[in-house]
Amino acid sequence: xxxxxxxxxDDQALMRMGFAMVLGAEDGIEVVGEAADGAAALTQVxxxxxxxVLMDVRMPSMDGIEATRRIAxxxxxxxxxxxxxxxxxxxAFAGLKAGAxxxxxxxxxxxxxxxxxxxxxxxxxxxxPRVTRRMLEMFAQRLPDAxxxxxxxxxxxxxAAGGDPLAELTAQEMAALTPKEREVFDQLxxxxxxxxxxxxxxxxxxxxxxxxxxxxxxxxxxxxxxxVVFAYETGLLRPGxxxx
Length: 244
What we know:
Layout: E1 4-9, H1 13-24, E2 29-35, H2 38-48, E3 52-56, H3 64-74, E4 79-84, H4 90-98, E5 103-105, H5 110-121, H6 129-139, H7 165-175, H8 179-189, H9 194-201, H10 205-219, H11 224-233
Parallel strand pairs: 1-2, 1-3, 3-4, 4-5
């Protein structure tokens, strides 16, 4: 099994030291570098090619949101976990929109920190899709950098409306899904787990896992959390739909 390379980014040296001690004691995880702000983080990512970056949200020079956005654009193979002080923080949600694969509270328990790093390195997310939906409901309308207002794209079949370029792109992407993959995507967007989707669609969890992988690949999404964000931003999922 390959070693998971981790970069620690926080403007507080003691915080970096604490995370380094926890992760450094784990087999299969290596802390390869540290940075005190977002700009330094970009340099370190380019030089060290870490698998996972633990990124503080609020830092001088360049904050964690902007750094995450740039890492997602230039080094998509590197996954970012945001570090935040408050659960369901609007900054954490902005980070998910920017490309992070999850967020952790700074007082996270050591075992949870290790589990999150391993999960994200394996291509999963470090935050429940259900939590993402709650964050969407709470913060999506407040963020100034929203890509599109919810409901801008017709949900039925991902059909394009009025020549909107985003709608047309969404329609093309959704058209690439098979009918069964679209069914799985609809449930995925509601935050359901593989087991819940399997029970609802009367198929095995292994089949759901296969379809989820295909959906994420065809839509160019990093993980399940970004499937929820994608569905909401394109209007395929509207506020209040489904059960949390």
